[in-house]
Design goal:
The protein is α/β, with parallel strands linked by helices. It contains ten helices and ten strands. The protein starts with 7 loop residues before the first strand and ends with a helix.
């Protein structure tokens, strides 16, 4: 079943004055429930939630799928060192304040999950529950090295066919079952065509500056204290791609041991990171959210 739902374009100001963007999906009929703020991964944008967000909204929750600073329709930062999870988390708090949202459920894919953990440390009361998509308090170095190898790197694209080929080249390991049509759709989420016809990646290449500045330390972040604080005090669901090279099975097992009450689902045949429109992911998300108020 495919559900198409309209969204309105919402703008908000970051604490340092950037104009930021979100897709704002109105909730379906029924009793009002805490809204959802969906946060994408490092090089992605709000379009990643284009399939899931309408279903979540139809269930009775307002959904705001954001473009993190430097991505999509959000402003690019003049200081690339502000491309950090703690700054992103403060941007999310600014969104909540300006949208009159006191508490929300956070869905965080990869970097979005790191932002969710940082946000919980900054303002625990703001987080009702969290869905962490293929991310944990530590990551497998090989997966992060793979992402770092293409993030912020220049790419020449002459056509949408070129864009689809690029999308397949860097993400084929995660979605081996995708068809040519799937890769075309993927490309149209991560690239944007300018008025002059030029097609370019839909993010600021400088988002990789803090990663390069951190060097080897970026490959082994220790966020276990933040994760424990989140998972022990808030309902938490961990989604893992069965073939993920970023969230290894060993790390997922450590997370489950550290937080026995955490819900968990594995999406077979998918790497980093599930799109959350997979049957297994959607079923787990809706079961999890049924008890979150």
């Amino acid at each position: 079943m495919t559900l198409v739902a309209a969204y309105v374009e919402r703008r908000w100001k970051s604490p340092d004055g950037l104009d930021l963007f979100a897709r704002d999906y109105a909730p379906g009929p029924g009793v009002a429930r805490p809204p959802i703020i969906a946060i994408h991964g490092l090089t992605r944008n709000s379009a990643d939630f284009g399939a899931l967000a309408p279903f979540l909204a139809q269930s009775g929750r307002r959904v705001l799928a954001v473009d993190v600073r430097g991505r999509g329709l959000s402003d690019r930062a003049s200081d690339p060192m502000t491309y950090r999870p703690d700054v992103y988390a403060k941007d999310m708090l600014a969104l909540m304040d300006q949208a009159a949202i006191d508490r929300a459920v956070f869905v965080g894919t990869s970097m979005g999950g790191l932002i969710t953990m940082a946000l919980t440390a900054l303002k625990p009361r703001a987080v009702v529950a969290a869905i962490l998509n293929d991310i944990g308090p530590e990551v497998a170095p090989e997966g992060l090295a793979r992402i770092a190898s293409y993030s912020g790197q220049p790419v020449e694209i002459g056509s949408w066919a070129d864009a689809a080929a690029y999308a397949k080249r860097i993400n084929g390991v995660a979605f081996p079952h995708y068809s040519d049509a799937d890769w075309d759709g993927f490309a149209r989420r991560i690239f944007r065509q300018q008025p002059d016809g030029e097609i370019g990646l839909d993010y600021d290449p400088d988002i990789s500056v803090p990663i390069r500045a951190a060097g080897a330390k970026a490959l082994v972040p220790n966020l276990w204290p933040m994760f424990r604080r989140l998972a022990k005090t808030k309902p938490t669901l961990l989604v893992r791609g069965g073939e993920s090279d970023l969230l290894s099975l060993a790390i997922a097992e450590k997370m489950k041991k550290a937080a026995p009450a955490m819900a968990y689902v594995e999406v077979p045949g998918v790497g980093h990171a599930p799109m959350l429109d997979e049957a297994e992911a959607k079923a787990a998300i809706f079961e999890f959210l049924a008890d979150v108020d």
